Amino acid sequence: MRMPLRAALTVAGAVLVSAAPALTSASASTVGARAAGTFFYHSPDSGDVEIEDPDNGECRLLLQGATSAVNRTDARVTLFLDRLCEEPAGLTLDPGEARTFTNPLPHSVMFG
Question: What mean pLDDT is predicted for residues 19-40?
Answer without folding.
Answer: 59
